[in-house]
Automatic annotation (TrEMBL):
It comes from the Bacteria. The keyword Transferase does not apply. Residues 212-302 form the PpiC domain. It comes from Solirubrobacter phytolaccae. Keywords: Isomerase, Rotamase, Signal. This is Peptidyl-prolyl cis-trans isomerase. Gene3D superfamilies: 3.10.50.40, Porin chaperone SurA, peptide-binding domain. GO terms for molecular function: peptidyl-prolyl cis-trans isomerase activity. Residues 346-356 have a biased composition (Basic and acidic residues).
Length: 377
C-alpha cells in the first residue's frame, strides 16, 4: 500500500541506499553502519530522519538538533508551549531538552532499524536469487497509487509534504515485492498435509467439531415472582406470548419479538435457567424460575440435537489449519535464522547502534518477512 499512513517512515518507508565499500572493516566516517561490508551513508540517514519527522503529522516538523545541543528544538517547543496556569511552574529548558532528546533518539532508532532491515532484505533476495523486474515494480506502484490517490494532485501534495521522492516510493514497492517473493519461497511446498496428520488432529480435537444441543424459547422475564405468576396465569388462560411479553417482560430484546429467544446452546444460559430449559419438555410451560436477573417463565418451542462433524466433513478445515501451521513454522524458523545471519554482518557507528547491530544493545523483536517488508524491532 502507498497510502500516506503506510508510506510514513514510522511504518514501512523504503530507502534506496547509496552504499560504499568498507574495504578495511569497521564503519567508514561517512556512514552510520555497514551491512555485509556495504555502507549506509549518512546522507541517506539524514534524508529519512527528515521523512520520519514529517510523518509525525506535526506542522513544520523538523529533526531535533543534537549537534547544537537541541537549541532550535527547545526554542520551537518553548514557542508552542502554552503559559502555565496560575500557580503552576513554568516548563524549564532542561525539561524541553529532555523531550527533544527523547524524540531524536526515537526517530534515530526507527530510521536505523529500517535502513538496516531493508539492506537485509536486498541481501537475502540476492542470496536466494529472488528478483523483481522494473515492470513488476511499476505495475504495483501504479495500482497502489491509483487506490491511495485517485486524484493526481493528491499524490503530488503527498510527495511535496512527506519529504519523499517518487524514487523512494518505487524502492519501497520493490522491497515489498522482494519480501513477498522471499516469503513465498520459504513456504513453498509446506502446504502438503498427510491424511494421517488430518486424522490425528481430528481425534485430538473432536470437541472443536461438535455442536451442543440448542433450544428455541419463548420467555417472559419479570423482576418479581408475583409478576411472573401473573404472566404464567395469563399464558395458561390462552393469552398470546406477544401480549404477555409486552405487558410483563423486562427483557427488551425478547419482548420486542413476542418473547422469542432462538438457538440457545446448552451451557450458555444462567445456570438455574439453563438447568430448567434443558430438562423441560418441548411445549411445556415452565416457571417461575428464579435467576440473578429475575424470574423466568418459558416454553421450549424447538430442539436442535447436539451434533458431531464427521472426519470427512471436517477434513478441509483441518487441512487448511495444518497448512497454515506448517507454513508459519517454516517462516518462524527462517526469520530466526535470517535475523541471526544478517545481524552478524551488521556493524553500526557509535551513536547509531540498535539491537539489529552486532555491536548494539541486547536484541529485541526483529524484522519479519511474513507478508510485508521487514521492519526493525
Amino acid at each position: 500500500m502507498i497510502k500516506a499512513a503506510r508510506i510514513a517512515l514510522s511504518l514501512t518507508a523504503v530507502v534506496g541506499v547509496g552504499a560504499t565499500f568498507a574495504a578495511c572493516g569497521g564503519v567508514p566516517g561517512n556512514a552510520v553502519a555497514t551491512v555485509d561490508g556495504e555502507a549506509i551513508d549518512k546522507k541517506e540517514f539524514t534524508h529519512w530522519m527528515t521523512v520520519a519527522a514529517k510523518s509525525t503529522g506535526q506542522a513544520n516538523a523538523a529533526v531535533p538538533d543534537p549537534e547544537a545541543d537541541y537549541k532550535k528544538c527547545i526554542a520551537a517547543k518553548r514557542k508552542a508551549t502554552p503559559a502555565p496556569a496560575k500557580g503552576q511552574p513554568k516548563v524549564t529548558d532542561d525539561q524541553l531538552k529532555t523531550q527533544c532528546k527523547q524524540e531524536y533518539e526515537q526517530l534515530r532508532s526507527q530510521v536505523m532499524q529500517l535502513l538496516i532491515s531493508f539492506q537485509w532484505i536486498q541481501g537475502e533476495a540476492g542470496s536466494l536469487d529472488v528478483k523483481v523486474t522494473d515492470a513488476e515494480v511499476k505495475k504495483s506502484f501504479n495500482e497502489q497509487k491509483k487506490q491511495s490517490f485517485p486524484k493526481e494532485e493528491d499524490y503530488k501534495k503527498f510527495i511535496a509534504t512527506s519529504g519523499q521522492t517518487e524514487a523512494d516510493i518505487l524502492q519501497r514497492v520493490k522491497l515489498d515485492l522482494l519480501s513477498n517473493k522471499i516469503r513465498d519461497k520459504v513456504v513453498k511446498g509446506k502446504d502438503t498435509v498427510s491424511d494421517k496428520a488430518i486424522q490425528d488432529f481430528y481425534n485430538k480435537n473432536k470437541a472443536r467439531f461438535a455442536q451442543p444441543e440448542k433450544r428455541d424459547l419463548r420467555v417472559v422475564l419479570t423482576k418479581g415472582k408475583a409478576e411472573a405468576d401473573k404472566a404464567k396465569a395469563a399464558l395458561d388462560g390462552g393469552d398470546s406470548w406477544t401480549a404477555v411479553a409486552k405487558k410483563y417482560s423486562i427483557d427488551d430484546t425478547s419482548k420486542a419479538s413476542g418473547g422469542k429467544l432462538p438457538a440457545q446452546a446448552k451451557g450458555t444460559l444462567d445456570k438455574e435457567l439453563d438447568d430448567a430449559v434443558f430438562s423441560a419438555k418441548k411445549g411445556e410451560l415452565v416457571g417461575p424460575v428464579k435467576t440473578q436477573y429475575g424470574y423466568y417463565v418459558f416454553t421450549v418451542t424447538n430442539v436442535t440435537a447436539a451434533s458431531q462433524q464427521t472426519l470427512a466433513e471436517a477434513k478441509e478445515t483441518i487441512k487448511q489449519t495444518l497448512q497454515s501451521q506448517n507454513q508459519q513454522k517454516a517462516l518462524d524458523t527462517f526469520v530466526k535464522d535470517f535475523t541471526a545471519r544478517w545481524k552478524e554482518k551488521t556493524e553500526c557507528s557509535e551513536g547509531y547502534k540498535t539491537s539489529d547491530c552486532k555491536n548494539g544493545p541486547k536484541a529485541t523483536p526483529t524484522p519479519s518477512v511474513t507478508g510485508t517488508v521487514p521492519e526493525g524491532s
